[in-house]
Specification:
homodimer, mainly alpha, Tetracycline Repressor, domain 2, elongated, DNA-binding
Amino acid sequence: MKDKKSTVIEVATRLFAEQGFDKTSVDNICKAAGVSKGLVYHHFNSKDEILQEIFVQTTKSMLEMNKSVPNEPPENQLVKLIENIFSQLEHDKLFFQLNLNLMFQPSTRKLLSHHIKERSAALLDSVKKIFDGIDPDQSTKLSFMFIAEIDGVSLDYLSVYENYPLKALKEHLINKYKNI
Amino acid sequence: MKDKKSTVIEVATRLFAEQGFDKTSVDNICKAAGVSKGLVYHHFNSKDEILQEIFVQTTKSMLEMNKSVPNEPPENQLVKLIENIFSQLEHDKLFFQLNLNLMFQPSTRKLLSHHIKERSAALLDSVKKIFDGIDPDQSTKLSFMFIAEIDGVSLDYLSVYENYPLKALKEHLINKYKNI
DNA sequence: TTACAGACTGACTAGTCGGTCTGTAAATAT
DNA sequence: ATATTTACAGACCGACTAGTCAGTCTGTAA
């Protein structure tokens, strides 16, 4: 049986994603999770702390999922990274929207800036290691551009375009990087 | 002399960008603009309406600034578009952050979805017209990819990377598209 | 049986929110 | 000169907010 603290975190994640952090009251969370307010403040010191715990957990699982496979040729690693990220993206749109929301909502952005920086730096680092095996002189620029391409497609996919050609753009990127 | 309605819009834009829509109260806006609540609700029916008016105004000025120059070769138009967008981006970071915030904050996203769709469609349309003059068979895919590259670089620049190599990536994109 | 930890409850506080209302002064029309 | 509309002020309202607190319940170990 699931303990109530985990339930609170799960429910809060869903509500933050659906309604936004500011529009979700602690009372909302309590009601949806079927627990009392006292319990929430027994496990967490503040509403902010719930959010931080969510972000730390998800950062951990994101880095875990995107860790590189060092014994393959770098081109394969890039392709796998692309496939992996886009598959996560399709599988959990709401979660990626939540992340964009948190990163650009001034209040939450300040609250999480440290974690966000860590997450970005970790991704850049692991991509740069791959590009070091392809073109060490330009690996920094190529890494930033690689990340920007993926982020851009993700952003546009998550924004409002109807019938966004995600699959076509994914294939485009895979073809570009598999023979770089 | 500036009328008070414009002052309210200017002040509200700044506060929404700095603090976020939800964390900015109507009283905050009144105080910062030096007007009363009665005035604000004389000119606007709701807080939401202030936001909508801001978004409509900025959409208009954005489309105005990025309208294409039809008598030039398409490659030049692409380069000019890149230079134009990145120069706006550097000039008014806060404003672009506000847009991302509004687009991914569930409450404001719903409120503005119509305007957001219009804006995206207009940009896609004008980019596609350029690519039609380069490679009509692939113009849709190339347009989406072009927009994604610019959006991705912008997104990463606005997020949390320190010392983001915006200039280098801008040059990279210009070189890529000037001889496409 | 007793003693204790800590998970849990829900009423409560102090304050903020968007929005409304009444009133007034100035501008415009008649 | 008088009537009507417009622009504005600020007191006020009820709903909602994050967070607190005194006390209850349950399980476990002595």
